[in-house]
């Protein structure tokens, strides 16, 4: 864990998608229909961070995610680069700090690229009861599997529930559990997808996170259970269903979720999304700190690459939380040759404008118009 960080805490999140079970009687799906769903959890109204928001499972990295005890468990893999996850092609100097940080210097033999994946697996177990592990004895075989399954046959339900409450109590118990059940967190199924830094709060002080986003594809939708404390509700929906509920003001999602659901929408088939996420993840990713701009008629959340994105963004939040502008959205759009921004008209009315070529072989979010017509290159969602 990086205790030197003053302004934010390190966290990991999984965009967990799973194939839909089809009944044999089901009619042939429409060509533009998704054949997978994504897991979203509704945070409790009492939660300290984004109450009532629908979020992907995830949470804070703990010291136990970096524990040397993982070395023994991962024994056959520990000598491979990143325990067999592999190395990204991205040059170290452009790598997001959370991945570039030398963890050995911070006293942990577990690389960040491994520890944040362990964190993502642990948090998914804590929050949703979905255990993304593989049996230790044939981990090598599982590692190369194209689309993995979630494991529930390691122990019975009551045993699983017991472990889950122990892990929620103390994250170190996740190591004990893996040792006892002879399993390993499936770090190899976690494909690096992005890195979002919580922007400076528009409404005073809020918790800020430096969050690694992974994408994990499962063959089938697994059982999910709820954690009453932080999460009150969970839902498996297609990306277009979530975006429609958001537009219809039935659910609220934060801008990163909005943006990433739009990016996933480029793929209607689970196998295509999986192949893309897996091959793209070796390219690496950029750290994104959204910078708020208050226009006269809306809020604009600027992302790196946008013409208006500051050359030296204020990471610490010492200055004002939002850059003021005397201009309207229309004027701001006209003045910017390069668009990479999320425009927030109100809490539920959001659009992404992207005309830059995304770095690291990523894709821009698909527009809602394109979701129907598949023809629009200018990504307005
Ligand atoms: C969690 O468990 C570890 C190892 O058993 C122990 O060292 C640590 O103090 C525990 N933490 C809490 C908050 O109980």
UniProtKB/TrEMBL annotation:
InterPro entries cross-referenced by the UniProt entry: NUDIX_hydrolase-like_dom_sf (IPR015797), NUDIX_hydrolase_dom (IPR000086), NUDT19 (IPR039121)
Keyword ATP-binding (UniProt): no
Record bears the keyword Hydrolase: yes
CDD domains documented for this protein: NUDIX_AcylCoAdiphos_Nudt19
EC number of the protein: 3.6.1.77
Gene Ontology terms: cellular component: mitochondrion
Alphabetized UniProt keyword annotations: Hydrolase, Magnesium, Manganese, Metal-binding
Gene3D superfamilies referenced in this protein's UniProt entry, alphabetically: Nucleoside Triphosphate Pyrophosphohydrolase (3.90.79.10)
Span list, region Disordered: 309-332
Cofactor: Mn(2+); Mg(2+)
Domain of life assignment: Eukaryota
Catalytic activity: malonyl-CoA + H2O = malonyl-4'-phosphopantetheine + adenosine 3',5'-bisphosphate + 2 H(+); propanoyl-CoA + H2O = propanoyl-4'-phosphopantetheine + adenosine 3',5'-bisphosphate + 2 H(+); choloyl-CoA + H2O = S-choloyl-4'-phosphopantetheine + adenosine 3',5'-bisphosphate + 2 H(+); (9Z)-tetradecenoyl-CoA + H2O = S-(9Z-tetradecenoyl)-4'-phosphopantetheine + adenosine 3',5'-bisphosphate + 2 H(+)
Molecular-function GO term, any one: metal ion binding
Nudix hydrolase domain ranges (all copies): 20-259
Family: Belongs to the Nudix hydrolase family.
Record's function text: Fatty acyl-coenzyme A (CoA) diphosphatase that hydrolyzes fatty acyl-CoA to yield acyl-4'-phosphopantetheine and adenosine 3',5'-bisphosphate. Mediates the hydrolysis of a wide range of CoA esters, including choloyl-CoA and branched-chain fatty-acyl-CoA esters and at low substrate concentrations medium and long-chain fatty-acyl-CoA esters are the primary substrates. Highest activity seen with medium-chain acyl-CoA esters and higher rates of activity seen with the unsaturated acyl-CoA esters compared with the saturated esters. Exhibits decapping activity towards dpCoA-capped RNAs in vitro.
Protein name: Acyl-coenzyme A diphosphatase NUDT19
Native organism: Astyanax mexicanus
Gene designation: NUDT19
């Amino acid at each position: 864990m990086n205790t030197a960080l003053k302004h934010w805490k390190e966290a990991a999140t999984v965009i967990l998608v799973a194939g839909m079970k089809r009944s044999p009687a089901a009619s042939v799906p429409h060509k533009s229909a998704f054949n997978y769903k994504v897991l979203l959890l509704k945070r409790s109204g009492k939660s300290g961070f984004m109450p009532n928001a629908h979020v992907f499972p995830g949470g804070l990295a703990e010291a136990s995610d970096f524990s040397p005890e993982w070395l023994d468990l991962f024994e056959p893999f520990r000598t491979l680069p990143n325990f067999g996850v592999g190395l990204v092609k991205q040059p170290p100097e452009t790598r997001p700090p959370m991945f570039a940080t030398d963890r050995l210097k911070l006293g942990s033999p577990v690389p960040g690229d491994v520890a944040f994946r362990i964190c993502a697996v642990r948090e998914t177990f804590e929050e949703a009861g979905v255990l993304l592990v593989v049996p230790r004895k044939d981990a090598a075989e599982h590692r190369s599997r194209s689309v993995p399954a979630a494991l529930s046959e390691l122990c019975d339900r009551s045993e699983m529930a017991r472990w889950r409450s122990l892990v929620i109590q103390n994250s170190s118990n996740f190591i004990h559990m893996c040792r006892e059940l002879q399993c390993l967190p499936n770090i190899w199924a976690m494909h690096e997808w992005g890195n979002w830094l919580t922007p400076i709060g528009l409404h005073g002080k809020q918790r800020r996170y430096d969050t690694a986003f992974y994408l994990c594809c499962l063959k089938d939708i697994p059982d999910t259970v709820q954690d009453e404390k932080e999460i009150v509700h969970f839902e498996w929906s297609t990306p277009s269903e979530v975006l429609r509920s958001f537009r219809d003001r039935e659910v609220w999602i934060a801008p990163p979720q909005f943006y990433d659901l739009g990016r996933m929408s480029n793929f209607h088939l689970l196998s295509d999304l999986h192949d893309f996420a897996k091959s793209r993840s070796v390219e690496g990713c950029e750290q994104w700190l959204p910078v708020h701009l208050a226009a006269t008629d809306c809020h604009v959340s600027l992302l790196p690459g946008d013409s208006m994105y500051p050359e030296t963004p204020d990471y610490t939040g010492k200055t004002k939380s939002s850059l003021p502008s005397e201009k309207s959205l229309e004027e701001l759009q006209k003045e910017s040759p390069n668009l990479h921004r999320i425009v927030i008209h109100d809490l539920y009315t959001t659009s992404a404008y992207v005309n830059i070529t995304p770095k690291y072989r990523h894709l821009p979010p698909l527009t809602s118009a394109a979701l129907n017509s598949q023809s629009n290159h200018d990504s307005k969602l």
